[in-house]
Amino acid sequence: MSEVKRIDPRRPCRITHAGLRRIVLGEIGAGVPRASEVGSAHLKQGKPLRTRQPAERWHMAVVHSYRGRLDEHAREAIAAAAILAAPATGVIAVVLGELHEDMAAVGADNVVIIPDLDAGRVQPEREVAAVMTILDAFRPDHIFMPDNLLGDGDLGRRLIAIQGNPAATHVAEIDAHHVSVPWSGGAGLAHAPLPRFVLLEPQVVDANLPFVGVGEHLPFSKSAEVALTTEVCRDLGLEPTESTGIALEEADFIVSAGNGVRHVETLENLARTLGAAVGASRVAVDEGKFPRDKQIGASGKSVSATTYFAIGISGAVQHLQGIKDCRHVIAINRDAGAPIVKRADLTVVGDAEDLMQALITRVSQARNQRDVPEAR
Predict the structure, then answer these.
(1) How far, in Å, CA of 31 to CA of 13, rounded?
(2) Which of 80, 151, 314, 332 places its Cα 20 to 30 Å from the Cα of 299?
(3) Pairing relation of β-strands 57-64 and 21-23?
(4) CB distance 376 to 274 below 8 Å
(5) Alpha-carbon distance 222 to 130, whole Å?
């Protein structure tokens, strides 16, 4: 059994106006910046604070993070809370999971981070108990959440059922007075006054705001109810499966071969060493080096791996189309002017066979010295 890593569907991404899925590239930060540093940095860029009045009322946004980052849908929910807030209304963002980014930029005045409730674990009862504690403390007029299938939508509906307040899901339009949701199979929109709970569809709000929030981080003190909460379900984790049983569309790390790969065995050995799935360009497939189901490109499969390792691939337009949603692209190629170089985040110019052998040796040495973990 191998443990080829699959794509995590919660990985931050955004949907462009053209309908294309774009992965949010996150930086690794040393920690969360102080509110004063964040605010001054944005003020230097010409963005004013949304309000300088003390908060008399509150808008709240509740979102999940992934690896310390927020996806575009989560940012839009926080931005909606800020856009609809009056000058005397503060905006508090509740983030379930670790966070290593600037929350002032999306309009949050106060931020509460609960790192042990990240989206990678299934713990709905504890999430509800924690958020209910914050709701009771701030009593916000309106609560905004992303309406998705990954955790925010489920949490939002649980809160709606418990609170019994007016709510709207799948919200496609919103302003300070009303919301609109699709009805009759999407043929029309139904309108209603702005409710307390608002679960937003993607791209309803522009998260690129002309102002910033204060971005002050508040501590979260677990109440007795949260500490004593018992889950009614068990998270059984991920079950390893054969690499051949994982579709390339689901693989999170792909080592892909092109015409520049002379020895398929070396590439497959490299993929095993790195714990990656194997893909190929159309040229390599047409030559009979790989089966047709390994072909990546416009006439093959489109992939969205976190890491795509292109070895000996020149980067024809059709192939680049198939990897447009990959987060990081690493290329090995003899030609420094190959099209794949423009797409790659890192390019190593050299012979594919020599570099693959050197990489296999170096990774093996590092594992023997315990510098890097075993492939998963």
Answers:
(1) 22
(2) 332
(3) unpaired
(4) no
(5) 7
Q: Tokens 């949050």: give the residue.
A: 108
Bridge-based pairing of strands 173-174 and 178-183 is antiparallel
Domain boundaries, the chain: 31-227, 247-368
259-296 pLDDT per residue, tens: 999 899 999 999 988 889 999 999 999 999 999 999 99
Sequence-ordered list of residues with C-beta below 8 angstroms from that of 320, at least 6 positions apart, any chain:
339, 340, 343
Per-residue tokens: 371: 């510098």
Q: Whole-prediction pTM value?
A: 0.63
**222 exposed, middle or buried (CB, 10 Å; 0-12, 13-18, 19+)?**
middle
Query: If you classify domain 31-227 with CATH, what class do you get?
Result: alpha beta
Q: Tell me the C-alpha to C-alpha distance, in Å, between residue 193 and each of 144, 171, 179, 196, 197.
A: 15, 12, 6, 10, 11
Tens of pLDDT, residues 305-329: 889 999 999 999 999 999 988 888 9
Q: Determine the Cα–Cα distance for residues 179 and 316; give it in Å rounded to an integer.
A: 46
Task: Specify burial of residue 154 (Cβ count, 10 A radius: 0-12, 13-18, 19+).
Answer: middle
